[in-house]
């Protein structure tokens, strides 16, 4: 039986609420979990990723944007964390060169601009889309996933 697409929508009213949302998700993640972050420039993808990473680190450290390096890695409490920004990716062949396909199975991966993955996007990923809300700092957040693994994590995460 094929996996069924599940979808959840909600709003955050501020960057602080978006960061709190990321901090609540952090302990639910394990090696092999992939989160695909979509939204326009300034929508909150990097803010969410940095907040999640900070909550997951073994030891506090600086969390720069991977815009120019493409990948930043961190030692997380539940496994290695890869923060990936594919905005500047010029060719899909670079994905394998980065080691990203292997990381999808061995690390926790947060991927900004996942449309650059094309058909290489993992089917088991959780997608989180950020869109501008009615207020300047508000965000409409949409989660979607097919892998049953996310059901319990999302249910617990949303009710914390």
Q: Can you tell me the overall shape?
A: globular
Biggest sheet record: 7 strands, mixed
Indicate the structural class.
Answer: alpha/beta
N- to C-terminal distance: 31 Å
Backbone CA Rg: 15 Å
Low-confidence stretches: none
Helix content: 25-40%
Number of helices: 5
Strand content: 25-35%
**Cross-sheet strand order for the largest sheet:** 1-7-6-2-5-4-3
Structure description:
By secondary structure, the chain is an alpha/beta fold. Helices cover 28% and strands 28% of the residues. The protein has five helices and seven strands, in the order E-H-E-H-E-E-H-H-E-E-E-H. It has a seven-stranded mixed beta sheet with strand order 1-7-6-2-5-4-3, with helices on both faces. Helix 1 (15-25) crosses helix 2 (45-56).
Descriptive tags:
alpha/beta, 160 residues, 7-stranded mixed beta sheet, single chain
Summarize the structure.
With 160 residues, the chain is of the alpha/beta class. It is built from 5 helices and 7 strands; from the N terminus they run E-H-E-H-E-E-H-H-E-E-E-H.
SSE topology:
Layout lengths: L5 E7 L2 H11 L8 E5 L6 H12 L14 E6 L2 E7 L7 H5 L2 H7 L1 E5 L13 E7 L6 E7 L3 H10 L2
Parallel strand pairs: 2-5, 2-6, 4-5
Antiparallel strand pairs: 1-7, 3-4, 6-7
């Amino acid at each position: 039986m094929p996996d069924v697409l599940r979808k959840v929508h909600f709003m955050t009213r501020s960057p602080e609420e978006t960061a709190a949302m990321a901090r609540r998700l952090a302990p639910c993640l394990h090696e092999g979990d992939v989160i695909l972050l979509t939204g326009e420039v300034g929508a909150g993808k990097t803010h969410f990723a940095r907040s999640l990473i900070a909550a997951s680190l073994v030891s506090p450290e600086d969390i720069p944007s991977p815009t120019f390096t493409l990948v930043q890695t961190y030692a997380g409490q539940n496994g290695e964390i890869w923060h990936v920004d594919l905005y500047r990716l010029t060719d899909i062949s670079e994905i394998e060169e980065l080691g990203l396909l292997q990381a999808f199975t061995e690390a926790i991966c947060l991927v900004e601009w996942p449309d650059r993955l094309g058909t290489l996007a993992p089917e088991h990923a959780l997608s989180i889309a950020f869109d501008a809300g009615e207020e300047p700092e508000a965000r409409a957040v949409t989660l979607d996933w097919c892998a049953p693994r996310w059901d319990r994590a999302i249910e617990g995460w949303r009710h914390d």
